[in-house]
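Budget justification aside, the reviewers requested a transparent look at the raw inputs and outputs of the sequence design task funded under Objective 1. We therefore reproduce one unedited record. The lines immediately below are the structure tokens for a 266-residue chain.
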């Protein structure tokens, strides 16, 4: 157990929890799961003694590499190539879905630990939003609607590609879900962060787009972009920024009819 007593520098640290206290902690975990990780007073562990709460809080430090709970971190990070929120960078940090600073009993609960990249983890609030519209989605306990809600608006201006991502107001989701999606999108500055990735990504498509145009003009370019969008969608998910961008470019007459040549220099 993360809080089991141990000796360090001749001093006994940790906490010897009684079976009844362990049961109380497990009840908090059950409450967390039932509530799908939404903030609640019961999750703060007021029924637990302060020494026990402090011990659980400190137990998270043992998840660092080389310490006794390092396997917890390793298992959570295993097999995850990109941050599950932004889809840009590899996850390097564990985020507490409900913040450790407030919800001490959840400090080492694996369902409260989410692998994120540094940028997402730093941008995400360390407080728990009381309003449903400002709560982050729980990656383990919530299912995001399986519809296309990320939108890319593209234009060619002054020889350059201008892309603006946002949450589609006409997507088939309820108002609260749309508000939550928008809050996450804005809080993590995803539009600005996606923009920094576009040139690198499109450079990898330059030769294929030019060859498609040479073989059959705009319609073949459009077909290629749609097929590649399907490939990226299967590789990631339907609301990843790459397939969303490719689908938007396929719908752009200006891009497919030759405007790409100003942007995709080779």
């Amino acid at each position: 157990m993360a809080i089991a007593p141990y000796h360090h520098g001749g001093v006994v640290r940790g906490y010897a929890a009684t079976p009844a206290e362990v049961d109380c902690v497990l009840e908090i975990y059950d409450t967390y799961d039932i509530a799908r990780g939404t903030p609640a007073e019961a999750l703060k562990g007021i029924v637990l003694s302060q020494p026990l709460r402090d011990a659980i809080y400190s137990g998270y430090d043992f998840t660092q590499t080389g310490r006794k709970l390092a396997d917890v971190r390793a298992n959570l990070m295993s097999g995850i190539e990109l941050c599950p929120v932004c889809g840009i960078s590899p996850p390097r940090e564990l985020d507490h879905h409900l913040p450790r600073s407030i919800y001490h009993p959840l400090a080492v609960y694996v369902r409260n630990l989410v692998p994120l990249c540094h940028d997402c983890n730093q941008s995400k609030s360390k407080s728990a939003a009381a309003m449903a519209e400002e709560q982050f989605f729980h990656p383990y306990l919530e299912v995001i609607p399986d519809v296309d809600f990320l939108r890319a608006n593209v234009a060619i201006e002054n020889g350059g590609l201008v892309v603006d991502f946002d949450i589609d107001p006409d997507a088939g989701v309820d108002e609260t879900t749309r508000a939550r999606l928008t809050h996450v999108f804005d809080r993590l500055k995803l539009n600005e962060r996606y923009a920094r990735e576009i040139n690198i990504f499109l450079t990898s498509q330059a030769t294929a787009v030019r060859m498609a145009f040479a073989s059959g003009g705009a319609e073949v370019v459009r077909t290629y972009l749609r097929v590649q969008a399907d490939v990226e969608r299967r590789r990631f998910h339907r609301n990843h920024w790459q397939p969303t961008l490719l689908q938007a470019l396929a719908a752009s007459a200006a891009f497919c009819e030759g405007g790409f040549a100003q942007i995709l220099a080779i």
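Strands lie at 6-8, 11-13, 93-96, 113-116, 150-157, 160-167. The first strand starts at residue 6 and ends at 8. Computational costs for records of this kind are itemized in the attached budget.
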